[in-house]
Amino acid sequence: MKDANKMHGILFLISRLMPVTIKIIPGLLSVSLIILLIQALIPLVQVQVTLHLVNSIQQLVEGSTQFSTSLIWLSIQGGVGLLTASTLMWDQLLKKKMLFQVSFFFEKKVLEKSQKLSLIHYEIPQSYDLLAQTNGAGERGFQVLSSIGIIFMYCITMVGYLATLAKYSWLLPLLIILLIIPVVIFNIKLGGKRYEQMIFQSPDSRKATYITQLFKGRDSIKEIKMYGTGEYLLNKWSSIYWVQANEKYSLEKKAGWINFKLEALGVVSILVASAMLIFIVSKESLSLGEYVALTAVITSSYAMSKTIASNFSRIFEDALFATKIFSFLDLPEENKDHQLKMFPEKLVKGLEVRDLTFNYPGQNRPVLKNVSFTIGVGERVAIVGYNGAGKSTLIKCIMGLYPVPRGMIFFDGVDINDFDRSTLYENVTAIFQDFVKYNLTLRENVAFGNLHKLNDDFALSEATSKAEVFSFIDRLDHKYETELGPLFSGGQDISGGQWQKIAISRAFLRNSQIVIFDEATSALDPVSEYFLLEKIINMTEGKTTIFISHRLNSCRMADSILVLQDGEVVESGGHQQLLNLRGYYADMFEKQSSGYVGAV
Ligand SMILES: Nc1ncnc2c1ncn2[C@@H]1O[C@H](COP(=O)(O)OP(=O)(O)OP(=O)(O)O)[C@@H](O)[C@H]1O
After folding, report:
1. How far, in Å, is the centroid of ligand 1 from the Cα of 392?
2. Where are the domains of the chain?
3. Which CA distances in Å does 255 have to 245, 260, 313?
4. Ligand 1 atom 27, closest CA
5. What are the pLDDT tens digits along the chain (600 aa)?
6. Residue nearest to atom 24 of ligand 1 (CA)
7. DSSP letters along 34-90, please?
8. 525 contact partners, CB below 8 Å, separation of at least 6
9. Whether 38 contacts 83, CB under 8 Å
């Protein structure tokens, strides 16, 4: 990335970050600014106090002043020391408080934004990288402001220092300014390089984190043990780790070497400045106090210039990092750009899919090709096809989870893009094969289907009994308050089929007009699946039901069946009709039936 672009990125960040921060923490920010100002002035006061203290001691030795004068200056020095300590404490406390508030604000924004993005963003690696880069970005954003504050504070002190030195010789401040410039430039470049490295390493870092999570996950460690893939994965992780560590080390080595040269330059400059000071002392007979104070000013100026430079470096690193948060927050949201309609309270015509063609981002080959069909209100439709035929993709398009161009999906003749998403999701519900097992209470697991019913035990019982899970709940000691899953203490894990039935009860609680079961019963044994599907179909009487199942026996219950093959609808009709057709469906059905017959 060019330096000009980086600079632009930082200015962009500051222009967005500042107003937000001022809005979130106006009071804390103002108090912090006052403390910064006090902190900036304290070193200037300290210089004067040191000067007077040393002079008073010299006068005491010469017998021209009282002991009490030195004591007064000593007490003032102590007071300034206490003031320094207390401003430092308040500065740190305020920063912590501001950090919590700013981080919370941005973390929350990222989580809120994640819900507003189309699911399609989660199908592409770039989005995952961006999402990963938002981790801690709020904190980094705050660090930018904090670094600006520190630079601002030190600059005020430096101006005071340089003005003090200029009173004795203009060459002294010039020398210090000449020293600061290369240190600042170097640190800015270093910050940029560290950032570029972080972005470059981001995909592999994510992979390394993913591998470590495989070792920490219950399901994955099971397979790692069984297949003995631990060593292979460990090696993969180690190689990523060391490639990245060596890259980082190499950058730090180069930086360290340049830093060393700058340090050497700094030492020489300090020596030159001190020599100039001794020269001035010899010429203009400065007091001992002035000499001591000016020496302190020169050494502190050098230390401060390094702090200013390192904060510039941090700003570059943190700001470029924090811009990611705005890149993420600026991602386009689901249909926000036009007036949206509410989903019909009661569908009349039903669903129409017209010439639907769909590609995943970055893929040339369409996964769905000219898919067309209609589903009337109350109809039960099964979608079948081999693995990878496009069934789940079709479902996600129908649900509005993937964006589709206008003119392809309609509910009661209204384009899907014209519906307010929340009302669409309320009315078109799916239970997926990879449903979520919330490691929370059973109550929450069921009520996540419809949070308004969280405390409505009657509704929860109705939903769970429809999903045939009620009797199992009855046996649990804490009933709906039982914590499910193995992740937290006291959690009770349950079987895959029980988890699946709980997920199905969520759909019953939701009471949508269109219910979709995407292999939602696959964890059940074939008999349970058949009976549960039969029950579901009876329970969902009057509702439009779509189900995907690889067990074709279940398709007998459907009013019609759509057969998908390589993204196209190749057959449609009733069970018997398709068997008579002796095409794909009949072939799949016969292979499955012969499997069962052979097994008997
Ligand atoms: N995120 C993605 N990016 C690119 N291609 C994808 C993505 N997800 C799925 N695909 C591809 O889209 C095609 C259809 O996948 P889909 O999951 O819809 O099939 P399916 O019929 O539901 O399969 P299954 O019966 O195995 O669940 C497959 O070829 C798959 O490889």
Report:
1. 7
2. 3-329, 351-438+512-599
3. 15, 8, 12
4. 387
5. 566 666 777 777 788 888 888 888 889 989 999 999 999 999 999 999 998 998 899 888 888 888 888 899 999 999 999 999 999 999 999 999 999 998 899 889 988 888 888 888 777 777 777 777 787 777 888 888 889 899 999 999 999 999 988 888 888 888 888 888 888 888 888 888 888 888 888 888 889 988 998 998 877 887 888 778 889 999 999 999 999 999 999 999 999 999 899 888 888 888 888 888 888 878 766 788 888 888 889 888 888 888 888 888 888 778 877 888 888 888 887 766 567 888 998 999 999 999 999 999 888 899 999 999 999 998 999 999 988 999 999 999 999 888 898 899 999 999 999 998 888 988 998 888 888 889 899 999 999 989 998 999 999 998 888 887 877 787 888 888 999 887 777 788 888 888 888 988 898 888 789 989 888 666 666 677 777 777 777 666 778 989 888 777 778 788 899 999 999 999 999 988 998 989 888 888 888 776 554 433
6. 387
7. HHHHHHHHHHHHHHHHHHHHHHHHHHHHHTSS-HHHHHHHHHHHHHHHHHHHHHHHH
8. 497
9. yes
Domains 3-329 and 351-438+512-599 share a fold: no
**Residue ranges around ligand 1 (CB below 6 Å):** 123, 360, 363, 367, 385, 387-393
CB 429 within 8 A of CB 510: yes
3-state secondary structure at position 308: helix
Residue nearest to atom 17 of ligand 1 (CA): 392
- The helix (run of H) or strand (run of E) holding residue 538 is helix 526-539
Q: How far is the CA of 354 from the centre of ligand 1 (A)?
A: 20
Cα–Cα distances in Å, from 165 out to 152, 171, 281, 572?
A: 20, 9, 13, 90
Atom 28 in ligand 1: residue holding the nearest Cα: 388
359 Cα to the center of ligand 1, angstroms:
11
Distance between Cα 514 and ligand 1 center (Å): 22
Q: Which of 121, 122, 393 most suits a substitution to test ligand 1, by most atoms within 8 Å of the C-beta?
A: 393
| Residues sharing a CB contact under 8 Å with residue 598, sequence separation 6 or more, in sequence order | none
- Regarding the domain delimited by 3-329, which CATH topology (the fold level of the hierarchy) does it fall under? ABC transporter transmembrane region fold (1.20.1560)
389: CA distance to ligand 1 center in Å? 7
> Which listed CATH number (3.10.105.10, 3.90.780.10, 3.40.50.300, 3.40.605.10) goes with 351-438+512-599?
3.40.50.300
Question: Ligand 1 centre and the CA of 521: distance in Å?
Answer: 19
